[in-house]
């Protein structure tokens, strides 16, 4: 497997396929996550160095894959393991549909057909999510192993969304930390500020 954009999380039923816009594809967040990992010097408190010159265009294609491997290691191994688990979960869903006594044969065939039609799409959705999660975990590791307490960033390129997800990762990290994002004005420009708060007991 590799990574490429798909779309929101699919919802499959006997009546067809819909998409959950509250669970978007994570592919568009991979490039800004990489930028945050690369651009932030986790060993300095000089906030003016944080993402003052963000990329005009996101990483894509082979460059994106290379950058991901630099951060997450063997991409094929990571995605193959994820694909195996996802295929197992899909097989369990198919078995539940086959053995469901509350649906008609026609509904069963339709449901299984819809699962099959969306299988490749869903595998890609999970692959993108896996890579994004890996980058967030790496960011959390770097952030907590440094003395850095804040990250300043411009309000564009989805940096705020990525760092918002990092807040959630830090809550479940070991050690767990609370963090917050706020907006402030600097030199007449609105900037985001990510702040590490306290370790959670």
Commentary on this structure:
By secondary structure, the protein is of the alpha+beta class. It has a domain at 9-145. The chain has 5 helices and 5 strands, in the order E-E-H-H-H-H-E-H-E-E. The strands form 2 sheets. It has a 3-stranded antiparallel beta sheet, covered by helices on one side. Strands 1-2 form a two-stranded antiparallel sheet. Strand 4 and strand 5 form a beta hairpin. The mean pLDDT is 90.
TL;DR of this structure?
With 201 residues, the protein is α+β, with helices and mostly antiparallel strands. The chain is 52% helix and 18% strand. It is built from 5 helices and 5 strands, in the order ββααααβαββ.
What is the ordering of alpha helices and beta strands?
EEHHHHEHEE
Largest sheet: number of strands, sense, barrel closure: 3 strands, antiparallel
Q: What's the tally of helices?
A: 5
In round numbers, the mean pLDDT is 90
Low-confidence stretches: none
Give the percentage of residues in beta strands: 15-25%
Give, in spatial order, the strands making up the sheet with the most strands: 3-5-4
Write down how many β-strands occur, each being a DSSP E stretch of 2 or more residues. 5
């Amino acid at each position: 497997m590799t990574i490429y954009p798909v779309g929101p999380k699919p919802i499959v039923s006997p009546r067809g396929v819909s998409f959950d816009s509250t669970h978007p594809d994570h592919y568009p967040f991979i490039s800004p996550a990489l930028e945050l990992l690369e651009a932030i010097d986790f060993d300095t408190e000089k906030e003016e160095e944080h993402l003052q010159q963000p990329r005009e265009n996101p990483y894509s294609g082979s460059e994106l894959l290379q950058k991901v491997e630099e951060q997450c290691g063997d991409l094929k191994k990571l995605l193959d393991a994820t694909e195996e688990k996802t295929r197992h979960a899909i097989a369990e869903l198919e078995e539940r549909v086959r053995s469901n006594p509350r649906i008609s044969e026609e509904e069963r065939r339709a449901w299984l057909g819809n699962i099959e039609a969306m299988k490749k799409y869903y595998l890609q959705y999970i692959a993108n999510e896996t890579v994004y999660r890996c980058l967030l975990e790496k960011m959390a590791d770097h952030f907590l192993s440094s003395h850095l307490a804040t990250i300043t960033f411009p309000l564009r390129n989805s940096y705020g969304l990525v760092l918002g997800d990092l807040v959630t990762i830090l809550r479940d990290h070991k050690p767990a930390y609370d963090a917050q994002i706020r907006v402030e004005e600097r030199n007449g420009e609105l900037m985001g500020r990510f702040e590490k708060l306290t370790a959670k007991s």
